[in-house]
Amino acid sequence: MKKYGLHGNLKAQNGLGKELAAILLQASALVSTAKGCHLYLVSTDKQNPDTIWITEVWDSKEDHDSSLQLDGVGALISQAMPLLAGKPEKGLELEVLGGIPA
Amino acid sequence: MKKYGLHGNLKAQNGLGKELAAILLQASALVSTAKGCHLYLVSTDKQNPDTIWITEVWDSKEDHDSSLQLDGVGALISQAMPLLAGKPEKGLELEVLGGIPA
Q1: What's chain A's average pLDDT?
Q2: Range of the structural domain that residue A7 is part of
Q3: Complex prediction ipTM
Q4: Which residues neighbour A75 within 8 Å (Cβ) at sequence distance 6 or greater?
Q5: Which residues of B touch A100 (CB under 8 A)?
């Protein structure tokens, strides 16, 4: 079955990439057990350590959207926002065909 | 431990995205059991069904590079090349920090 994928990045202010990544790793731990979540990867851009990429795979866009309401996620978003260099851009939406972790 | 990630796309000629994706799903099946491979996702770009994205996570860049030599991979690359609209571009290299499938 096809899944919903999202690949996007958040840019931290200069030198704050590690701090932003630490918050996103907490989000990953929270969200990875949510309904319909198959993947929530957190990565640093090799060319720019202040750019953090998030790669998600969900059963559906609805499951992804619901995850933003989970306990604790709002608090993490509030912690992350002041670290960002500008407004987050919309990620790349994918229809994931295969290679999905069990 | 940090892992090596690669996120890139291949653009098929008009209307050949499904055919290209089918070849890449065969590659995913071959490669996902290779040494050091944690993820080999194959996805269609929601905005452009002839653009196929591949998202890989490996223990190391060396493990990724070695996978290109696996039995059967060369044959799949040969099948895919004539479907492409132009030369593949280098993907985005990532240092994957967390959320890695077991």
Answers
A1: 95
A2: 3-87
A3: 0.93
A4: none
A5: 41
